[in-house]
Specification:
Layout (H helix, E strand, L loop, with lengths): L1 E4 L15 E3 L5 E6 L12 E6 L10 E5 L9 H14 L5 E5 L4 H13 L7 H8 L8 H8 L3
Parallel strand pairs: 3-6, 4-5, 4-6
Antiparallel strand pairs: 1-5, 2-3
């Protein structure tokens, strides 16, 4: 189950040095963050992907919600895979944000799946995200397995 809302703003990508921005091997930029933290300074996302157990409600920018309880896996894996592909496509030309409550487990898992879509082998995607986004990303063994089996 997912929800999509709102019109998109003009295409532009993130500053690669901004907090939470992950550069994928192709050069695409995507920002990961935890929603419990204040919104980082600078431009707002053009589109957000929110990985939470319940709908986060309206945002000042267009967004898509993927039902994904904390410390677990997405409740609808096909919906999550579609959202990952959409995020990967959009981050080529837009400021895309991927976020969960803490910005580590679910966000890291999704970022690792985006890295796979971008050409990182599934067995190396968690290490890639930990090296280039956050050292503690992808928190649980089942999240790591989900990434290793993604595609």
């Amino acid at each position: 189950m997912s929800a999509v809302s709102g019109p998109a703003e003009p295409a532009t990508t993130w500053d690669p040095s901004a907090p939470g921005v992950l550069r994928l091997p192709s050069g695409r930029l995507v920002r990961g963050r935890g929603l419990r933290r204040p919104l980082p300074q600078g431009p707002q996302p053009a589109f957000g992907f929110y990985l939470l157990g319940r709908d986060p409600g309206p945002m000042p920018w267009p967004r898509r919600w993927v039902r994904w309880p904390d410390f677990r896996l997405p409740t609808d894996r096909a919906d999550a895979a579609e959202a990952f592909r959409q995020a990967w496509e959009r981050c080529a030309v837009e400021r895309v944000e991927v976020a969960c409550a803490g910005g580590k487990g679910r966000t890291g898992t999704a970022l690792a799946c985006l890295a796979i879509l971008d050409g990182v082998p599934p067995g190396e995607a968690v290490a890639y995200v930990r090296a280039h986004y956050q050292a503690h990303a992808v928190e649980t063994p089942w999240q790591r397995r989900f990434v290793a089996r993604y595609r």
